[in-house]
């Protein structure tokens, strides 16, 4: 694969710390790279260095002649005086851009709900983000660098973006680098993951699931100081293999190796035990919403209906994810649960022992304690907290959520966005509510901290209601999903995939077009399995064994190739590119065989 760009011996430091010291990385045709790491470790800095937006203190960045790089900042650089249409296509005549299938698809996927003539300065933050992303994607680029591209996007837009990026270039062309905490997105589009930590960039093959597998193996062999993180990653891997059927249908790692690692790991949550604890804390009655409608008065007169005859009987220990486009009525529904919204008709009944708490997006709980030290804030709360049947001090909980001893004496105002988010969650849990509402809880958190938060929530025995555009988190911490659609509240037994299909069908009806039939990969899991004959099963078992042998040989060949690559002259880009091409050919063959293995496993049952 041809070399596109690279950084050699990159060193950069800021007044308070060294970010990178001697980092060498490269991007070749066909690379789809996800960049992960703790907040503040240098993910965005690495992207800026490779885009030549900032210069290293030493080392160099080389870009192949003629390579065009498109870059998406975390904050948009749109001109406030332009209209939405001008921001996207400039003064290009309509007949030209409208005849371009790629541009039509981008407009449909990201901004079709926006007024084409609306000035940019009239848009909300989320709308501006979508326009900025669409403006970038309309261009022709050899390399795309995206810094948190899923921010402010809903589940449907994120799914569309993943599909667009997978199909934007042929498999062996173009280069993509993305910094994101959206783990579903990473798994969907990336063939390689770079972990930025401690001044280095460590590469891993595959997307997020494959990265977790390799990182577990690395941590398993590390010193005792890494034991806590290892156990967390093993639990995360157990979730990936057991809890997400859609994800395991397209593995980027050896299934046998994953099973070997997790065969002694218990399920993510003991749902029976948690339900029993929830009943003892809550009683049988939580919140009953029965035949409720909600309407809001309009300034011009009349009323706007938001919810129409909704019924939702919330059970003790229930873990529910709530889906819906912006403005569908999710916040109104949660307002009924908290008691902040009164129904226009119908009945809402709250159990006598219910204590509801909401993790808001605005960090409201921290406004009055900005000048207090973290240790003082925690000291005014409970002296102990029970998690997973074990009594823990607030300090131990802080450590579990990634705080160091030094940070305990830090004023709340000086904490990073992610640290404030974790402190906010801890303060809410120490108040011991029995109904917890999470409103976009993944904001400002990196992938490690999201895993730590999810691990803590696994042991929480109350009722959990989650609103989030983070598909991975939604599937990870909830047991069922409902959607607010056209004023109704509907159960989605097929999960987020079912919601996306129904949303697409609704949009197609609105456009007067027939909706596309769902693909086999997203069909309902309730479809009956075909009956297989004994001969078919025996043939499948035989082929699976042959695939196992071939996968072992290919894995050994790939390992040998990587060792040769590591020993090769790193300044010989042409030679390295040849190694990369051969490695990719082997990986492609492994991917095909693993997919065939999965198809055969369905036959064997």
Automatic annotation (TrEMBL):
Region (Disordered): 503-572
Source organism per UniProt: Rothia koreensis
SMART domains hit by this protein: AAA
Any GO molecular function: DNA binding
Every ABC transporter domain range: 5-223, 287-511
Basic and acidic residues biased stretches: 503-513, 535-571
Family annotation (Gene3D superfamilies): P-loop containing nucleotide triphosphate hydrolases, Valyl-tRNA synthetase, C-terminal domain
Protein name listed in UniProt: ATP-binding cassette domain-containing protein
Lineage, top ranks: Bacteria, Bacillati, Actinomycetota, Actinomycetes, Micrococcales
Keywords noted in UniProt: ATP-binding, Nucleotide-binding
Keyword Transcription: no
